[in-house]
Design brief:
The structure holds two protein chains of two kinds.
Chain A lengths: L2 H13 L1 E3 L1 H23 L2 H7 L18 H20 L3 H18 L6 H15 L8 H5 L7 E3 L1 H21 L2 H5 L4 H4 L9 H4 L3 H23 L1 H21 L5 H8 L6 H9 L21 H14 L11 H4 L14 E11 L5 E3 L2 H4 L2 H7 L3 H18 L5 E11 L5 E2 L23
Antiparallel strand pairs in A: 1-2, 3-4, 3-5, 5-6
Helix pairs in contact in A: 2-4, 2-14, 2-15, 4-5, 5-6, 6-8, 8-12, 12-13, 13-14
Chain B lengths: L1 H16 L16 H36 L3 H21 L6 H4 L2 H5 L6 H10 L15 H10 L5 H9 L6 H34 L8 H25 L20 H17 L1 E2 L2 E2 L3 H7 L5 H17 L5 H7 L1 H25 L15
Antiparallel strand pairs in B: 1-2
The chains are: A alpha+beta, B mainly alpha.
Chain lengths: ~450, ~375
């Protein structure tokens, strides 16, 4: 590639000035969706169930310091999320609102890793990006209050970075589906689809195994290619129809909450400004005749390395499991933050044995005493949770039962994708001696 | 470019493919007549279990009334017999804790143990108890409370008979005993009648593998019950959760000493339920379903686990509360054999039958 071409590319994808309307749509819909998400969370009474009921919370590596809050604290934080969603939507105190949204939403996710969901992670990432995007520079309260902010055009990177993010999500989800369980055993589709045989018309087909294969292969193909079909102008409309069909289908079949809505609305960003002008026109947006373009919203110097890092991390993180031995679906090393969606049907039993070195006596922990059913289910299939829980038991037995130096071992068995259960963790390893880190966990049985 | 992409894809596939090992490569590909199994279970196991339970708890209630009308050694003996028979039959019916049984909190009302003696004594003193108030955390009712009232309120047999016999019209024990037996009878009646009046049909028709279908109800309650057998009947007394210090007073039926009989009955009932067996006939059961799934030797494992657990528990001495003091290791071994079974029926069986494990109460979304 010669230098000329490179500059051309750079111009086209980064510096070229484009109309602002796609970003405006994105801002409005994102805000609305997040607000709806908060209402839905309240309405389902999840606050108590997720944040108050448990006595113990699993943490993400490096975020052990995150404290869980009181009922009022959680409600306050969710209220901030709700209010800032609206502020983002109407574009008032936009940047501040984005920052507050990002931190409060992320904090809520960090409290208990049990509830990790890929689409919550995606929301965090999008909110982070929105902080730096000029999505309030038109059709917003901010520009009403301060017309000097108004822009009709923005540099192309501000839209392309969102497109890139969504492309990474889809493509990585597709690559993750290229595993033998998904492709050649139709797992877990052949477990999940027959649950819906009661659905009208479609349900009839779910009893057949070939339908599970069909869904698996179509799903993989869709994830791998949809972003590229959305990029090409000729296929875009057709591809977007597929987006609608695909996500409506998944929302009917699976308990995946906001995810389908997030993807259906976010992918609108692939459409060019003309479509958005018309769309926004429905709610009173008028395209200005005179263009106001100002380089002040161009990539700021300090931002450049930050965004490059962000993109690099996004490109590499989903593939970090290649650095670990074994099947990622089994070991879960490098499983999270990698767009692995709907890939496993997994269940397990973990029985912890606490031995007092001095008296030689052994006690079996009753997991249900410390964990909710959902936490126990998640813990028994994820090695880092098993380790965290063992460390919690160590503290508990030291303080409550005056055990000086407990040895904690676990009998863990896991059944993955239709196989009979197998031993999961080396039962001879004293988990109190092990610290979590990013090195391969040798105590996971392969 | 496209060729490069193709190779990259192939690389990804093989990269993960080579890590796989010998597995059932065609999971969930079977055709099993669920309705026939549900029909066998409902008509030949569940309903007869409840029918017999109803008979026994009616006898229990009648014996309680007869006894309070005329307390004497004979009527007390009759009442105690009726109690033992009903308690044993409950072990058989306990594993169907869904639908009508769940509506009346059957399990929690009939067999929460160990008995909360203090609470019962307080109830007796205040003459204040209402079993209609649903309280799953209460340990002052059902069979464990009768166990205490009929066998435990005094240390010597004479004192106990004297306490139960005295002051015939206002004896608080009489009122409490009658309140319990009629509470038990009422709940069992409701459950049995609900099965006869409609639930049976909807149960048999409720096919599929989703949450709330008959299959998931069966597997769920079957597992919960077995988990209770393991933990409450064997594990707690054996000191599994208490640094190996035995808890003889926490055995089921501590005062009457029926513990071992109850545990054996419960495990045998689970085995029959699993096999779809009733009397000498062996109808369609979970074993046939598991075999249809053609996954390893799961059925063989489960059956031998049952045999082992039954043998181990049968060999325990009675009363368990005494036995566990002198032969704790044997109780621990019995616990271990029950625990082993739990892996097979809780993790492997649902996997084999291609039932998603949703019974553990998924609260949030998934993805």
């Amino acid at each position: 590639m010669n230098e000329n071409k490179l500059t051309l590319l750079q111009h086209r994808f980064i510096n070229q000035s484009v109309e602002i309307s796609p970003l405006i749509t994105f801002r409005i819909i994102f805000g609305l969706l997040m607000f709806y998400g908060v209402l839905r969370f309240f309405q389902k009474n999840w606050v108590e169930k997720i944040y108050i009921e448990p006595n113990f919370f699993f943490k993400y590596y490096g975020f052990e310091w995150v404290e869980h809050l009181s009922l009022n604290g959680i409600y306050a934080l969710y209220s901030i999320v709700g209010i800032t969603s609206i502020l983002i939507c109407i574009g008032l105190f936009y940047r501040l609102a984005c920052i507050a949204f990002f931190f409060s939403f992320s904090y809520l996710q960090l409290i208990d890793a049990t509830n990790y969901l890929n689409h919550y992670y995606l929301v965090c990432l999008l909110a982070f990006l929105l902080i730096f995007l000029p999505a309030n520079r038109a059709f917003s309260i901010d520009t009403l209050l301060n017309p000097a902010l108004k822009k009709t055009h923005i540099p192309a990177w501000t839209i392309n970075i969102l497109i890139l993010q969504l492309t990474i999500v889809y493509t990585c989800a597709g690559i993750a589906k290229l595993n033998p369980d998904w492709l050649f055993r139709a797992m877990p589709m052949c477990v999940w689809l027959p649950e819906h045989t009661a659905l009208p018309i479609l349900g009839y087909f779910f009893q057949f195994k070939w339908v599970a294969y069909l869904f698996s292969w179509i799903g993989a193909f869709y994830d791998l290619t949809i972003a590229f079909f959305l990029m090409l102008k000729t296929t875009r409309l057709f591809a977007y129809c597929l987006v609608i069909i695909f996500h409506v289908m998944t929302s009917i079949l699976f308990n995946i909450g906001l995810f389908p809505m997030i993807m259906m609305s976010c992918t609108l960003i692939f459409f060019d400004a003309k479509v958005h002008n018309r769309l926004l026109g429905l709610i009173g947006y008028k395209k200005k005749d005179t263009s106001i373009f100002n380089n002040s919203v161009n990539v700021k110097r300090f931002l450049q390395p930050l965004l490059v890092c962000f993109i690099l991390i996004q490109l590499l993180l989903p593939f970090r499991h290649w650095l670990y031995p074994g099947n990622v679906l089994w070991t879960e090393e490098g499983y999270r933050f990698s767009w692995r969606v709907m890939l496993v049907e997994k269940s397990g039993i973990a029985t912890f044995k606490i031995k007092d070195k001095i008296s030689g006596r052994t006690t079996e922990a009753d997991n249900r005493k410390y964990l909710t059913k959902f936490q126990e289910k998640q813990m028994s299939i994820q090695p880092d949770f098993i380790l965290q829980f063992a460390h919690f038991l160590e503290k508990e037995f030291k303080s409550k039962y005056q055990m000086k130096d407990p040895i904690i071992k676990v009998d863990a068995r896991v059944a993955l994708n239709g196989r009979l259960s197998k031993p999961f963790i080396d039962p001879s390893v004293d988990l109190t001696e092990i610290e979590d880190n990013f090195l391969p966990k040798k105590w996971i049985l392969k | 470019m496209s060729r490069l992409l193709f190779f990259l894809l192939m690389f990804c596939i093989f990269f993960s493919a080579c890590q796989d090992d010998d597995v059932n490569n065609d999971p969930c590909n079977f055709d099993f007549d669920q309705k026939a199994m549900f029909k066998n279970m409902a008509e030949n196991i569940i309903i007869p279990n409840y029918q017999l339970l109803q008979e026994k708890v009616r006898l229990l209630d009648e014996s309680a009334i007869a006894f309070t009308n005329d307390p004497n050694p004979q009527s007390i003996a009759t009442l105690r017999d009726a109690f033992a028979n009903a308690y044993i039959q409950w072990q058989v019916a306990a594993q169907h804790d869904f639908g009508p049984a769940e509506e009346v909190l059957l399990h929690n009302s009939l067999n929460n143990f160990p008995t909360n003696v203090e609470e019962i004594n307080a109830n007796l003193t205040n003459n204040n108890y209402d079993f209609n108030e649903p309280n799953p955390e209460s340990y002052d009712r059902g069979f464990p409370a009768l166990d205490y009232l009929l066998f435990g309120i005094a240390t010597s047999e004479e004192d106990l008979l004297a306490m139960l016999s005295e002051n015939e019209t206002t004896n608080p024990y009489h009122l409490y005993i009658k309140a319990i037996t009629s509470d038990i009878l009422g709940r069992v009646n409701h459950t049995y009648e609900a099965w006869l009046n409609g639930y049976q049909t909807s149960f048999i028709e409720n096919t599929g593998t989703a949450d709330g279908t008959a299959l998931s109800l069966i597997i769920n309650s079957f597992n919960e019950n077995y988990e209770a057998i393991k933990r409450e009947k064997l594990g707690t007394p054996a000191g599994i959760g208490s640094s190996g210090f035995a808890n003889p007073t926490k055995t089921e039926a501590f005062f009457s000493g029926l513990s071992v009989d109850l545990a054996v009955t419960a495990i045998k009932a689970a085995e029959n339920y699993y096999l779809g067996r009733h009397g000498d006939a062996n109808g369609l059961g979970l074993d046939d379903y598991v075999n249809e799934a053609k996954i390893g030797n799961l059925d063989v494992t489960i059956q031998s686990n049952f045999t082992e657990a039954i043998n181990n528990v049968q060999n325990l001495g009675s009363p368990l509360s005494d036995f566990v003091d002198s032969n704790q290791d044997e109780v621990v071994a019995a616990y271990a054999s029950a625990n082993k079974q739990l892996i097979s029926i809780k993790t492997d069986m649902p996997t084999a039958l291609c039932v998603a494990i949703t019974y553990q109460d998924n609260i949030s979304d998934s993805d």
